[in-house]
Structure formats: C-alpha cells, structure tokens
Amino acid sequence: MSGSRRVEGGRREPDGFRPEIQALRAVAVLAVVVYHLWPARLPGGYAGVDVFFVISGFLITAHLVKEAERSGRIRLPSFYARRARRLLPAALVVLLATAIGTAIVLPLQNWPQVVGEILAATFYVENWVLAADSVDYLAQNANIASPVQHFWSLSVEEQFYLVWPLLVIAALVLVRRRGHGPVRRILVFLFGAVAVASLLHSVVLTTVDPGPAYFATTTRAWEFAAGGLLALVPAARRLPAAVRVGSSWLGLVLIVLTLVTFTELTPFPGWAALLPVIGTLLVIAAGASGGLLGTARLFRLRPVQALGSISYSLYLWHWPIVVLAAAAVDGELSTPARLGLLALSLLLGWLTKLLVEDPARTWAVLAGARPRRTLAATSLALVPVVVASLAVGGTASARIATEEARVVAAVNGDIDCFGAAALIDAGCDADAAPAGDLVPSTIAAPSDDVNTPECWSRNGEAELKVCSFGPDAAQAEVRIALVGDSHSNQYLSAVQWLAEERGWAVDVIGKTGCIWTAASQDNDPAWLANCAEWKRSLDTYLRGDVEYDAVVTSASAESPIAPEGEDLATATVRGFVEAWAPVADRGTVIVAIRDNPHTRGDYLECIADDPASAAARCAVPIDDAFPFFDGLPGAVERTPGATLVDFTPYFCDGDVCPPVIGGSIVYRDPGHLTSTYARTLAPLLGDAIQQAIGS
C-alpha cells in the first residue's frame, strides 16, 4: 500500500495519527474537569492545562517546521486561518451561550464583571485580566468565579499561536541571509533560549508574585517551547522498544503524581511545573509503545480516544455549566448533581465536536478558499458574541447608573431614619422595613465606592498619593488625614462630607492592603517590598512639615501579620503602636476606627430574595461577624492621647449584624462598606474626632 497509513505497535494507524497524544488530551481534560467538580479528590488537577501546553508546543512546531523545510516559507494567513477554523467556532458558541446564561441565572450586580471577562475571552486576553485581578485586593473581594475564567489557558495558547510562527520565520530569514545552517539547528537555539528565559522568569515570579505568575503567558511559554524542542528531535521516536515502554509509563506516573499530590498551596507554575511537563514529554517521545507491557493498549481504548477527541469542546463547556448551575441552585451541589453536570458536559462536548468543530474545520467554503475568507467569516462570527455581551453589560450599566443617581439623591437629601440614622436618631426603628427600594440597591452595591486611582495607591504602586478635600489647610479650623488600607479608605465619603459640611481640610492617603503598621504583613516578597516603600514614604511625610490635628486610621483585621517570634496579638498591637508613636509624639491625635464586621458571602442574593425582611433574615451573629483579631483597640490603649471609634453599635443591633440598616445596604462586598452607608456615619465620626482633639 501507499504511505497513507503506518504500522505502530502491531496496529495500523492513519498517517500522522498519534494515539498517545489523544490519550494525553483525555488525561488532561479529565483532570481539569474532575478538579473543578471534586477539587478535594484531585487537588492537582489544575496541572492538566500544562499537559495541553506541551502538546500544543509539540504539534504546532512539528507542523511549522514541516512546512518550513518543505517550502522554505511559512504562510501566516493560512496558518492563522486554520487555527481560526479549528478553535473559534466552538469557543464562540460557548461564549454566546454563557452570555445568555449569565443574563438568566446570575444576579444583575455580577453582570458587568462577567461581561467584561466574556469580551476578554472572546479576544483571548482573559489571562491578563485574571492576572490583574489577582493582585487587586478589591477585585478579589468583589468578583465572583466567572463562568469564563477557564479561558485564561486558551488565551495563553492563542498568544502562543501568534508568536511562535514568527520565530520560525526568523529562523528561515537567518538561514537565507547568513547561512547559519539547517533551520532546525537555529530553532533549537531560539526555542531553547525561550525555554530557559521563561522557566527562570516563572520560578522567580511564582516566588515573589504568585498571583500574576499563574496566569501570565511569559511564565508558561517554556512549556510550549519544551514541546517544540521535542518536535525538533525526530530521533526520539526511534528509541529502543524497552526504553520507549519505560519512558511512556514513567511519563504517565509523573503526570498522575502531579495530579494527586499537588494542591492549591503548591507554588505553581515555577519549578513544580517541571513534573507534568517532563511527564508529558516522556509520553510523547515514547509514543504508544507496543508489546505486552507497553501503553498502546491503554492509549487505544475507545473511551480514552473518544474523550481525547472531544477534549477541546468538553473543556469549553464544563466550567460555565458548573458555575451557572451552582448559581441557579444557590447552594452546594450534591454528588448526583455533579455527576449530572459531568454527563451534560460530556454530551455538549460531543455534540459541539460533531456539529460545530468538525464541520467548521472541513467546510469547503472556507477550507478550500483563500485565508481572507476565513478571517472575514471569523470577524462576522464575533459579532453575535460581542453584541450579546454588550447588550447584557449595557442593561446592567444602565440600571447601575440609575441606582447611583438614587444614591446621590439619598445621601444629599433629608431622608428620615436613613442608614445609620436608624440606630442614631430617637424615634427610628432600625428593624422597620424600608418604605421604598434599598439605597444602594443590590445592583449598585458592589460598585458603591468613591475611591479613584488618583487618590489610591493600588497593588504594584508604591507612590504616596495625597488627595485633599475642603478648604486650604491655612483656612480650616480642623485639619485631618485619613490613612491606611481599604478598610480605612472606605470612610472616604464620610470625610468628604466633613470637608464639605464642617469646612475641615481633609487629606486622604491610602494603599491597597497596606496597613499603617511597623509589623511585617504576611504576603509575597514583591508585594511586601512595594508596601514597605509606600510606608517609608508615609512615615517621612507624616514626620515632615505637614501638621494635622488628627490622623484617622483603620485596618482590615483580616490582613495577616507575620508574628516574627511573637504571638499574633502581641505582634499586631506592637506594630500599630510603633508606627503611630512618631506622629503621636508630635501632639497629633491618633483616631483609630475599629474594623467593621463581615457579613455572609451571599448577602446580596439573600437581600434580593426579599428586601423588606432582609435586615432580620440575612443578619449574621455578632460573634461570626468579627472572625479576626483586631489590634486597634489594644494599640489605642498603649498610645497616649489616642482615641478609639467603635461603630459596632451602628453595624450590629444587639447580638446580630444585619446587611441592611435604615433602608441602606451596609456592604459593597462581604468585608467592605458601601460608600453610602459610610457617609451616614459621617456625623458620628466628625463628633468623635472633634471630641478627641478637644475642639
């Protein structure tokens, strides 16, 4: 017969068919799906994506090098058109379905975040969105698990597909112009340089900044490069049979070892990713080793091959199904429910492969035409996803804008018993149902925050930003500074009111997660260095020529402090006292606001079920509302002249802490106040500051 088929391990396979790669796909996708459905059963299942990365590097490199050696060129339009036909149709179908599912299932307040991520996934930049959110303290608290966050790995792959052909073209140019030898030799050097640089970058960034390291393309590029380097060594498949058998089984063992022993606490990717990468390389290099002890029989099992064939569509569908189902039932998914979701994911994966993937890849109208027709069709196919996403997002934005206008009207108007006034003013009933809609509503609450980048040093920024409100300091009777992390800056609306209504000069100085303390916080090295630089600038500023009547501060009790040989409580209190001492010694009063309580994670959904009864029905016991040690009261006791402001009576009524008080939603996320409710505390805060400074 002609060379259309080859013999492998005693069986004939279609030319170019690699059963071991299909089997690896099956292992990888099953690992990820099981991890998402039963994370405790397969704690390292997230490493399945690394298996995919190596496979992609191997296959794409093999294809590009074959074309380069055959024709001496790489036809980029054709390459990108094939990738588009292979990957985009199924992805766009899932994204469109997810946009519709978001509008049906998820609470409206979550739509803006999810729509933004759907658009990011559509254009394959979701990994960078998640990398940015991973270092954004406020985003971590406010964002939900998006139904498209699994597109981060697909985004990394697409970015690889954009860059990798360019390296092959560069190698071809060097061969033509400078005669540097065979293209494979040059590519070994180029891919090797990428692998070494990316691996070192991955190791360093995983150590100092693990959040972005997990999602960054640059920390995963070496995995693709490793697969690419293997593709450049055709002799790998001519290894002795015994070596191939041993290599194949060893590779599987390394992959399985990764899946069952790694956990979320494993620093990843970094050095740890070498285990699944090497395992995948060994399996691919060995092939489907035949013989009695070989892996061929296992790899060629029909269920294994079938699962590998639908791995892409299965990966696309499983996570939106899990997230939307969990949101729909509003609770923990039972084992039968999870099994049902697994079955549904498999069914949709198979149908998508049959009805979308295969027809789109082989459709003669596109496959037999010039690449520009495919690219034009791709552009048109993007339209429904973008339109649906913008429609969902636009609906949410319009509602949120309306709600924000209601917030402004509420805090500027004379509404009896609104917000904290329900607990302050005589004659108010804090438990009474609100006469109208809540302000802010459940829709607007997550975005009810007046902080801006101009007044706030975010993660990755060490610059000390000082925002001033009210009259010039020389003209004001009282000058204060609000200093600290987000639990301090959440009172920005309150001090703005003091600046406007009482004519105080107010400076606001804050940084994400960075507490005004001399104690070391427990975080990764890069974050700690950034925070330390900001605090040095803060200390220099507060010890300089500026003079305040009072420095107001608060701090998240949830932010971990590194005890450094002490017990946590002692280290926490000591850190505050030492940081405040130079300012207090100058005669400036320290006003510390005790940290606010935390509410239940599903408080917005609970409120939305019945706003009129939410205050009582959605409240949490006061003991559960303060789960962390707060060192501020102890620090105030040890700091001469310091004052503690305890708003607990205005967050909690008796032995419970409701998420709705006086018709106002108290929290914008489970641990932060809405600016609206914080604004209703302004008179109390102003009176406490005036009493502390004796004016």
Structure description:
It comes from Labedella populi. InterPro entries: Acyl_transf_3_dom, Acyltransferase_3, SGNH. One of its GO terms (molecular function) is acyltransferase activity, transferring groups other than amino-acyl groups. It holds the Pfam family Acyl_transf_3. With 695 residues, the chain is of the alpha/beta class. It has 2 domains: 375 residues, no CATH class; 252 residues, Rossmann fold (3-Layer(aba) Sandwich). Helices cover 59% and strands 7% of the residues. It contains 30 helices and 14 strands. The strands form 5 sheets. The protein has a 6-stranded mixed sheet with strand order 3-5-4-6-7-9. A two-stranded antiparallel sheet has the order 1-2. β1 and β2 form a beta hairpin. α1 runs antiparallel to α2, α1 crosses α14 and α8 runs antiparallel to α10. The N terminus is likely disordered.
**Strand coverage percent:** 5-15%
Runs with pLDDT <50, length 5+? 1-12
Q: Termini, distance in Å?
A: 101 Å
Domain count, please report it: 2
Domain Acyltransferase: 20-352
Organism: Labedella populi
Keywords: Acyltransferase, Membrane, Transferase, Transmembrane, Transmembrane helix
Domain SGNH: 461-685
